[in-house]
Amino acid sequence: SCRPEKAPLQALSEYLESEAHRWETEHTRHGISEQCDFRDGVISGYRWAKWKLDEAIENDESN
Asked: How many helices (H) and strands (E) does the chain have?
């Protein structure tokens, strides 16, 4: 069952994933080295935030 207040959180989760993916693909267009620590940090940050958010959504749904 999808309660209305869940939708924004799910949308945020999808946004975080799309941003992580965008950062992963952009470096080839701009010629940024694959070993860019800043880029890797940003991607890790998005993925970590998505993971924590998904975890919170799951925990809330199981209660």
From this structure: 2, 0
Q: Which residue has the tokens 């992580």?
A: 20
One-letter identity of residue 23: W
CA–CA gap between residue 26 and residue 3 (Å, rounded): 35
Let me know: does 27 contact 36? Beta carbons within 8 Å. Answer: yes
The answer to whether residues 7 and 61 touch, using CB atoms and an 8 Å cutoff, is no
Closest CA to 23 of 41, 10, 11: 41
- pLDDT single digits (tens) 9-36: 889 999 999 999 998 887 666 665 556 7
Q: Where are the domains of the chain?
A: 7-62
